[in-house]
Amino acid sequence: MNISDVAERTGLPVKTVRYYEEIGLITPARAANGYRHFSDTDLHSLAFIGRARSLGFGVEACRSLLRLYDDPARASADVRRLAQTHLEEIDRKIAELEQMRATLSHLVAACAGNDRPDCPILADLAAMSPSARG
Amino acid sequence: MNISDVAERTGLPVKTVRYYEEIGLITPARAANGYRHFSDTDLHSLAFIGRARSLGFGVEACRSLLRLYDDPARASADVRRLAQTHLEEIDRKIAELEQMRATLSHLVAACAGNDRPDCPILADLAAMSPSARG
DNA sequence: ATAAAGGCTCCGGTTACTGGAAGGTCAAGA
DNA sequence: TCTTGACCTTCCAGTAACCGGAGCCTTTAT
Fold this sequence. Notes:
Two copies of one chain form a homodimer.
Chain A: H1 3-10, H2 14-22, E1 29-30, E2 36-37, H3 40-54, H4 59-70, H5 76-110, H6 120-126, H7 130-133
Antiparallel strand pairs in A: 1-2
Chain A binds a DNA duplex through residues 2-4, 13-16, 18-19, 23, 33-36, 53, 58-59.
């Protein structure tokens, strides 16, 4: 299979597939003309990576997961630990975004949104903290 | 005030303050020796930016907000629109993370996390979609 | 024969900084 | 006066995970 075939079948952009090769996640064979030739294993790895990426794993975590997948002697505890760590990171991000959302939605609701200059949003941003006020 | 003073008072790293000058968010004066000299206005702008950044606004949005803040003839509707757009972006991100979280926590819960190789997490990642199975 | 489609590499840009190197400046103490 | 150490400066490189495009080669179809 050529690169556009695997791109279509994995849903990954062609550029991304080349990138994954560049960073050593996959190592497709090369045809005589220099074209990449993807095996079913390559295709499978790419699909695996794509799925992991869609769950928010970073590419280095994907590399680890792929290694674990390829290791018949792996311990599921290692996989679980990776996923657990990532899950905690997601929870942190959600909490941060929820915090922003709370403040922001409050401010948006308080803003008249008309042609007058008065604006609680700007007022909030401009309110200096004691330390900055000196 | 020198750069470390404003850094301390705004809570922003020195490097970040220099960066904000580089991209034109602030334009501090320079002393004869080349040192940046920050006015109260600069300090205030930096605090404003820091607060906006903490609400998740991108630096370009910060630039817009700062411009609006400096424009006495602004319409609060413009500010509100900016904040509303950002709020929607936050909601999109939260939804995406919640989706990841749901799948991931399900998988983590299903994984024994012992020294055996069987792992539902890897099984999920390895499950090929029909399009890829082709 | 030619043109479109697909492939290749390499370079630069994205976001918002961060770290570090090399070197000038300033205030305080011996 | 000299030195030490804390500041300050600029410039360069790197981070995450790609994306866009230039310039060039190969294959496929007409």
